[in-house]
Design a protein that fits this description.
- The chain contains 5 helices and 13 strands.
- The protein has one domain: Metallo-dependent phosphatases (Purple Acid Phosphatase, chain A, domain 2).
- It is an alpha/beta fold and 226 residues long.
- It is 27% helix and 22% strand.
- The strands form 3 sheets. It has a 6-stranded mixed sheet with strand order 5-6-7-10-12-11, with helices on one face. A 5-stranded mixed sheet has the order 4-3-2-1-13. Strands 8-9 form a two-stranded antiparallel ribbon.
């Protein structure tokens, strides 16, 4: 049994916003499926680090979630900045249950346990956000990350975020401080694409190992975390 992760799938099987129009994304759904089926077994866990579906409403995710349901493994979803379908935890859980998407799980103010580890995370927020509203959003995300880490108890914690917590020569201090407070040693994040991939901070920074897991950054191949 193993833990994998990939972010930013940007599925649009039920919408008209295909990512294939962008350089490097040609045939990406087939590429994801091929590598997924080659690497991942039914007993494995895959964390999807945000921007999973372009659907605007929860019920419009049916084809995208159906595709994920058809793939092996348990899938743990956290929110990204383009997951406009995201709503309350109760509504999402009811929808997944009623739709038969029993291999999909929502990570929201909670922790998911796999392989003796606690998988924690939230969307987080941008480094360069400067509007008054941004401070409120960041504080809310910090609260959600803390709730997730607290839900992990004494288990070893692995954190997944959508937005990068570290940048070349900079960081989101509220996020990194929380990671250190709870003894996190591994943090995975997405959001970066195309030319922005070169700005991804990867490797150990102040005792925490960071890894970019956006789909195009991984060549559309899920990354084995554990």
């Amino acid at each position: 049994m193993a833990i994998f992760a990939i972010g930013d799938l940007h599925l649009s099987l039920g919408a008209s916003k295909p990512m294939d129009v962008f350089p490097g994304w040609e045939g990406y759904v087939g590429r994801v499926e091929s590598s997924w089926r080659r690497l991942i077994a039914p007993q494995d866990t895959v964390v999807l680090a945000g921007d999973t579906s372009w659907a605007m409403k929860l019920e419009d995710t049916a084809r995208d979630f159906g595709f994920l349901q058809s793939l092996p493994g348990q899938k743990v979803l956290l929110k990204g900045n383009h997951d406009y379908w995201w709503t309350t935890l109760n509504k999402m859980n009811v929808y997944l249950q009623q739709s038969g998407f029993d291999s999909l799980h929502i990570l929201h103010n909670s922790a998911y346990f796999a392989e003796g580890r606690a998988l924690c995370g939230t969307r987080s927020w941008m480094l360069d956000a400067e509007e008054p509203h941004d401070e409120k959003v960041l504080n809310r995300e910090i609260g959600r990350l803390r709730a997730s880490l607290q839900a992990a108890g004494d288990s070893e914690k692995i954190v997944f975020l959508h937005y990068p917590p570290v940048y070349p020569g900079a960081s989101v201090p509220e996020v990194t401080a929380l990671l250190h407070e709870y003894g996190v040693k591994q943090c995975f994040y997405g959001h970066l694409h195309g030319q922005s991939l070169r700005f991804a901070v990867q490797g150990e920074v102040d005792g925490i190992r960071y890894k970019l897991i956006s789909a195009d950054g991984l060549g559309f191949c899920p990354y084995r975390v554990l």
